[in-house]
From TrEMBL:
<dbReference type="Pfam" id="PF05832">
    <property type="entry name" value="DUF846"/>
</dbReference>
<comment type="similarity">
    <text>Belongs to the TVP23 family.</text>
</comment>
<keyword id="KW-0472">Membrane</keyword>
<feature type="transmembrane region" description="Helical">
    <location>
        <begin position="66"/>
        <end position="84"/>
    </location>
</feature>
<keyword id="KW-1133">Transmembrane helix</keyword>
<keyword id="KW-0812">Transmembrane</keyword>
<dbReference type="GO" id="GO:0000139">
    <property type="term" value="C:Golgi membrane"/>
</dbReference>
<protein>
    <recommendedName>
        <fullName>Golgi apparatus membrane protein TVP23 homolog</fullName>
    </recommendedName>
</protein>
<dbReference type="InterPro" id="IPR008564">
    <property type="entry name" value="TVP23-like"/>
</dbReference>
<feature type="transmembrane region" description="Helical">
    <location>
        <begin position="37"/>
        <end position="59"/>
    </location>
</feature>
<dbReference type="GO" id="GO:0009306">
    <property type="term" value="P:protein secretion"/>
</dbReference>
<feature type="transmembrane region" description="Helical">
    <location>
        <begin position="125"/>
        <end position="145"/>
    </location>
</feature>
<feature type="transmembrane region" description="Helical">
    <location>
        <begin position="152"/>
        <end position="171"/>
    </location>
</feature>
<dbReference type="GO" id="GO:0016192">
    <property type="term" value="P:vesicle-mediated transport"/>
</dbReference>
Length: 216
């Protein structure tokens, strides 16, 4: 039985189990070798954040209204934040972060990691999308800063806050709440980008599996 491992900097935080629909049931272990187990989740994990970037780049071509473009990008970013935080992280990589307020009014952050097998392709796309988008928005911020486009800079800062919050939360889930987040984040991001680039360039088809299994 897979039990969630909770990484939390606050002692005494109640353990709230992750939902069971992200586990691999007995007899379905071969699903881990499929290209995608949750194709729709992967799609929505990528589509909202990609759409926000595309709309930001192309909005001036279709509309001269800053307000309309601002609202549309914010809606896409909000949908992306909710989807990544509440659905795709839990189902694709078995991670979850959340916050609660105790009876004394003190806020507590909880970072959970469930020790279960995940699909390699889904995990790769999850981290690739999670890391690349804040980097892209950081580039937009530099362009706005040097171009003195201060109204667009506000939108970029909101995008950096929402995408960066998910990146920060899931890295804390992955590395543990007590580790140094600055050093660990830079090392983790560099490692993930290198692994993804290597996998896409040198990936080979997996060998066929046989139907013989051993009983322990």
């Amino acid at each position: 039985m897979n039990n969630p491992t909770m990484n939390s900097a606050t002692p005494g935080v109640p353990q709230v189990p992750l939902l069971d629909d992200d586990t691999i049931a007995f007899g379905e272990e071969d699903n881990a070798n499929k290209d995608f187990i949750h194709p729709y989740i992967v799609f929505f994990h990528l589509v909202f954040r990609s759409a926000a970037v595309v709309v930001y780049i192309l909005c001036g071509w279709f509309s001269d209204s800053f307000i309309a473009s601002f609202v549309l990008v914010i809606l896409l970013l909000s949908a992306d934040f909710w989807t990544v935080k509440n659905i795709s992280g839990r189902l694709l990589v078995g991670l979850r972060w959340w916050n609660y307020v105790d009876d004394d009014g003190k806020s507590h952050w909880v970072f959970e990691a469930k020790q279960n097998r995940v699909n390699r392709n889904e995990s790769r796309l999850f981290w690739l999308g999670l890391i690349l988008c804040p980097l892209i928005w950081s580039g937009f911020f530099i362009i706005c800063l040097f171009g003195l486009k201060f109204k667009w800079m506000l939108l970029v800062l909101i995008a950096l806050t929402l995408t960066g919050a998910n990146l920060y939360g899931y890295i804390k889930c992955k590395i543990g709440a007590k580790q140094n987040i600055g050093t660990a984040t830079s090392d983790f991001v560099r490692k993930q980008l290198l692994q993804n680039a290597t996998s896409f360039m040198f990936s080979q088809p997996s060998p066929p599996t046989t139907g013989n299994t051993g009983v322990v």
